[in-house]
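Pipeline run #58 for the internal structure catalog. This entry was flagged by the ingest filter as a single-chain record with no existing model, so it goes straight to prediction. Upstream metadata was stripped on purpose; only the residue string is passed forward. Reviewer on rotation: M.T. Logging verbosity set to normal.
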Amino acid sequence: MFPLRERKVSGYQFGQSTSYSTFHLGTDYKANFVTGYAPFDGTVANIVIGPQGGLTLWFKPDNRPELIRFLHLSHVSVVKG
């Protein structure tokens, strides 16, 4: 499952060299003021505001080893846990 209705890449892609890193750890999708959805069943692990990602939601899928981060968000309507 994909968390957005459309896959419009608007910035760096996974593995691409950037102005600040030799290996970008994610893909930037264009999603201006649209609703995002959890790509799997899981838990909101954390919600933080940071200097590089702005409003960021950390999502831990059930029964999977990954931790997914959603960065540069304008609003979050869920809570940790």
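catalog note: Strands lie at 42-50, 54-61, 68-73.
catalog note: Residues 42 and 61 are 4 Å apart (CA to CA).
status: ready for reviewer M.T.
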